[in-house]
Amino acid sequence: MSPATGASGLIRVEGSDEDAKTVFYTSLYRICERMVCLTEGDRYFSAYDGKVHTDTIPFYTDDWVWDTYHAAHPLRVLVESEKETDMLRSYIRMAEQLDPQWMPTFPEVTGDSRRMNCNHSGAAGTAYATGHKTHNGAIGVDINDKPLKNIPEIIDGLGYVSGVITTDGIDGCTPSVFFAHQPELHMSEEIWGDLADARLSFIAGGSHNAFENQEYETRDAIEKRYKVVSSLDEIPDKAKRVAYLPEKEEVCSIADGRGDFLPATTEYAIEFLDSHPENEKGFFLMVEGARIDKSCHNNDFGTAVLEVLDFDKAVEAAVRFAEKDGNTLVIITADHETGALSLRGKDNKSGKIKGLFASRGHTPIMVPLFAYGPMSLEFAGVQENTDVNHKIVNLLSSAAKDKRKKRD
Ligand SMILES: [Zn+2]
User: Fold this and answer.
1) How do the domains of the chain map onto residue ranges?
2) Using an 8 Å Cβ cutoff, are 104 and 35 in contact?
3) Residue spans of the chain under pLDDT 70
4) 121-407 falls under which CATH superfamily?
5) 22, 192, 212, 340: least buried by Cβ within 10 Å?
6) What distance lies between CA 152 and its chain's CA centroid?
7) 263 and 165 in contact (C-beta within 8 Å)?
8) How far is the CA of 180 from the centre of ligand 1 (A)?
9) Ligand 1 centre from 66 Cα, in Å?
10) Ramachandran class of 45: left when φ > 0, alpha when ψ lies in -120 to 50, beta otherwise
């Protein structure tokens, strides 16, 4: 190996245990994403005001902040401090050029995209639920905040019934993209308000306490459309629309004693939707193991494992039904990865493996997608999250048409 030159020649690496190596090489990978200099001959074009500027200080942009703040910027302070200063000056110039003035949160060549490196669950969930990419933070709306139809709304009236189950609050991103239309994921009151118009026959998630904290009008509107219960036993035999909102202690983390809420409710919902009087062609059910993400944000490997195992039981309930039914497709995937989790140090004797996190946020790592049942091959290979929606909608729409034809 030839000796390192330039800035990398200034780096001496110490420590050789496996953890240190993992962290070092992960960081090295992360510094591949770095700001680029747009200046040529003391001139540069800025997308922040759409103008060409004359400036002797180089102008840098396109900073993949979520990665670079961990490793590239701190490293450059040490080995290329002048360049780092120019980059920070570029941030100030971008802020000055923006109208209104705003420090870019995620500067790209094309301007500030104001997002995390990876989207919140709102945008990722909206892509799955509606088939449209949107701005970060959106709940079921497009980039101009116009409502987009979600799967339950699209298939409503085609002979299907729908349901949503989550271990998160009902106003959490993933459940809410299947019924709400709001420009901002933190608009909890408005999202609860949208529940009254949901095209869902079965809703379960946190919590009854949160429901009771809503305005009277919101609670009244929800109760006009749904039978609101806080346990499965309270659901009347002939109920058509149920909102099962357990006490908040029952939808806490599995480590804090959530018990079998997720698998038991999944099993119940499948039965409920399968035998629903308005179900002529089938049903759509979204089940979220929301606390896998939350435990990975906390870099809590033990809880993440417990949450995945619990989610696996809900998957089992779905697959068992699909096996028996023979005409049900089960899709298992995620809206994003959290924590850049990697596994290392497998020990066959003890059966142990170590989990290492390199981030506390959502990452752009590709997520797996598993599909079981008829047409599952449609979901093979690499695909856009929006494609998953298009495929589900196409399958359900054409199945609805086919059966209609047969009936005619
Ligand atoms: Zn998250």
Assistant:
1) 19-112, 121-407
2) no
3) 1-5, 114-118, 403-408
4) Alkaline Phosphatase, subunit A (3.40.720.10)
5) 212
6) 19
7) no
8) 19
9) 14
10) beta
